[in-house]
């Protein structure tokens, strides 16, 4: 039997971040994962967006999440010897003057100040923004595919490429056993598949499928644009745009309807010629109340969950991964906002 401190199921953004945090504390971690190119972590844009929503408001817990995530991801870049973090201003065109006035009023709130670069920013040529827009600070994107690939190499022999078989999991008060491995505990972090587990199927997951497009253009823009859909410059004239939201169809199928929705929203502000080169879909592991599921199983003390990060997984994972690490290593309780006990009690 090979002995570990923790076994983590899944190597999307949740499992990658948490395993890195535990290893940094000296824990021996085994990651079990079956690579899926249509997983939400690999399809997602990886947007780091502090101001969101139709009313352009501060993203949930942005003042805590963003100061933590930037140095954390830079540490991961250094450790994995790969470049995936891209600090870029996000430009949000105003839909009407009232939006500008409303955000101008909010900017007096000290919580907004670290995230606003310019309330009267002019868009780059080729972007339709007749009344201007806001450009943001502490924004950008994380290119998750090179991160996930490099981190798998970083794990070395502590990575197991296979579909997790829950029937092979055995647990007791001393710890858990899985095939030829033992550990103090096991953490479910494999995205939408967590909902199929006998230990977690009582949680109110609400997965949502999203489609994204990639296109080429002759123009190299210097900002991310976000109005109905995001447009993310990936370099060499390549852009990613999306996304759609579908709770009914949870397959990884791409659709003409999804492509039409994205291109119609894109046309509202993008005025440059472009050529579509790729169309993808993935299912986000979202939850009923749009808050993550973090914590210890209420009946089985060696089984944990880190999931339900939804469309903001890149922003949420470092902060709440650290919270779960503190529970595992120091028995520090998880915040009620994200603790799974909020549903067990009800």
TrEMBL record:
Coiled coil: none annotated. Residues 5-324 form the FAD dependent oxidoreductase domain. It comes from the Bacteria. This is FAD-dependent oxidoreductase.
């Amino acid at each position: 039997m090979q002995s570990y401190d923790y076994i983590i199921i899944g190597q999307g953004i949740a499992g990658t971040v948490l395993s890195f945090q535990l290893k940094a504390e000296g824990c021996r971690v085994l990651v079990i994962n079956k690579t899926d190119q249509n997983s939400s972590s690999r399809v997602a844009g990886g947007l780091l967006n502090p101001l969101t929503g139709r009313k352009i408001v501060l993203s949930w817990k942005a003042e805590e999440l963003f100061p933590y995530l930037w140095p954390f991801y830079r540490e991961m870049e250094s450790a994995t010897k790969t470049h995936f973090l891209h600090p870029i201003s996000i430009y949000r065109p105003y839909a009407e003057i009232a939006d500008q006035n409303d955000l101008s009023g909010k900017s007096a709130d000290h919580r907004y100040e670290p995230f606003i670069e310019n309330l009267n920013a002019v868009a780059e040529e080729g972007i339709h923004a007749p009344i201007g827009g806001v450009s943001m600070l502490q924004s950008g994107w994380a290119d998750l595919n090179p991160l996930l690939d490099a981190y798998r190499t970083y794990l070395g022999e502590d990575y197991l490429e296979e579909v997790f078989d829950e029937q092979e999991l055995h647990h007791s008060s001393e710890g858990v056993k899985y095939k030829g491995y033992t550990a103090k505990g096991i953490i479910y972090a494999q995205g939408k598949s967590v909902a199929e587990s006998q230990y977690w199927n009582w949680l109110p997951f609400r997965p949502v499928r999203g489609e994204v497009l990639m296109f080429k253009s002759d123009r190299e823009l210097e900002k991310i644009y976000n109005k109905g859909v995001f447009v993310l410059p990936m370099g060499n004239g390549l852009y990613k745009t999306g996304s759609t939201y579908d709770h009914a169809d949870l397959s990884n199928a791409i659709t003409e309807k999804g492509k039409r929705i994205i291109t119609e929203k894109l046309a509202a502000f993008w005025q440059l010629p472009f050529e579509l080169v790729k169309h993808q879909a993935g299912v986000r592991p979202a939850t009923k109340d749009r808050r993550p599921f973090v914590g210890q199983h209420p009946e089985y003390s060696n089984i944990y969950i880190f999931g339900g990060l939804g469309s903001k997984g890149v922003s949420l994972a470092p902060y709440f991964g650290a919270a779960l690490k503190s529970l595992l290593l120091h028995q520090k309780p998880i915040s009620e906002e994200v603790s799974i006990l909020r549903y067990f009690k009800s």
